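Design a sequence for this backbone.
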């Protein structure tokens, strides 16, 4: 397992714990996609955060009341056992996070899914103190509504995009379009104008002219190289930006793709050069890059971005 994972190179910091908690919260309630992550709207996370906070307050108030009254309900020991099991799973995840990267995913807590649900419900029951039938009804309606919203939100966000018209190209379109293997032509791109704090994200937008039917799914790798020439981090994404694979693209179409770039928390502040390469997923076939009369190259120097200190 360690051979197939990116290993963490230093001890966990407070920023790493904040990153882990944020990722677990988002993926527990809804963060969709694999290579391209789709987040719920901010107000939705705020509402779900308030509900989660209410459940936590309910658990703490119930524990305080039981300790003060020296009276525990018959189901109290079972709830305590489930809380201990959840704590053990969480501790194991923290230990795993100290070893490898990319652990901010709630699926890693799935062995404790049943205890999480029951402890969460017990917290809501303690804080709202309504009749159990009503609480079960409201909780069920809330979960079904959230699931339905997730399906509709993901579906609408991932509707196949339509080709764009030439007049929709940005004003800074390339004077000499860059050709990738006689398959695609990069007509324009837009990079973040402001420095991106480490741990935060921004978007890179590209505009592609399709020269011939791709017939397969192409991907783009963007390597971010520091001023010493060392690769600091990289971004791998479907060339279509996650909304549509390129095997659906057709010759003569003009396509826009948007990539969400998250700066890893440990990246040092500075200016980084972006080197882009287009290839099939397993990288067995990479498209050569050519601009005008220049010699063919393996990658395109797309531009530069600035990384700022963590907020």
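Sequence:
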């Amino acid at each position: 397992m360690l051979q197939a994972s990116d290993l963490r190179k230093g001890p966990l910091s407070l920023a790493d714990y904040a990153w882990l908690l944020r990722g677990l919260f988002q993926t527990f309630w809804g963060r969709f996609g694999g290579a391209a992550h789709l987040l719920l709207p901010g107000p939705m996370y705020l509402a779900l955060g308030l509900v989660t906070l209410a459940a936590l307050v309910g658990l703490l108030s119930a524990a305080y009341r039981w300790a003060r009254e020296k009276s525990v309900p018959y189901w109290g020991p079972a709830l305590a056992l489930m809380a201990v099991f959840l704590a053990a799973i969480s501790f194991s995840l923290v230990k795993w996070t100290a070893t490898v990267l990319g652990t901010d995913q709630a699926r890693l807590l799935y062995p404790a899914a049943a205890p999480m649900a029951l402890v969460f419900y017990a917290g809501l029951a303690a804080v709202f103190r309504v009749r159990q039938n009503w609480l079960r009804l409201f909780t069920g309606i809330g979960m079904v509504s959230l699931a339905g919203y997730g399906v509709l939100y993901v579906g609408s966000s991932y509707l196949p995009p339509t080709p764009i018209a030439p007049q929709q190209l940005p004003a800074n379109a390339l004077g000499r379009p860059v050709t990738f293997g006689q398959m695609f032509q990069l007509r324009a791109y837009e990079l973040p104008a402001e420095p991106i704090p480490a741990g935060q994200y921004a978007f890179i937008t590209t505009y592609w002219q399709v020269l011939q039917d791709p017939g397969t799914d192409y991907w783009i790798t963007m390597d971010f190289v520091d001023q010493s020439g060392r690769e600091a981090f990289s971004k791998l994404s479907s060339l279509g930006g996650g909304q549509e694979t390129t095997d659906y693209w057709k010759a003569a179409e003009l396509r826009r793709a948007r990539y969400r770039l998250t700066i890893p928390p440990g990246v040092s502040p500075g200016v980084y050069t972006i080197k882009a390469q287009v290839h099939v997923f397993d990288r067995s076939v990479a498209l050569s890059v050519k601009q005008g009369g220049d010699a063919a190259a393996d990658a395109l120097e797309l531009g530069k971005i600035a990384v700022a200190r963590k907020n």
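Residues 42-69 form the longest helix (28 residues).
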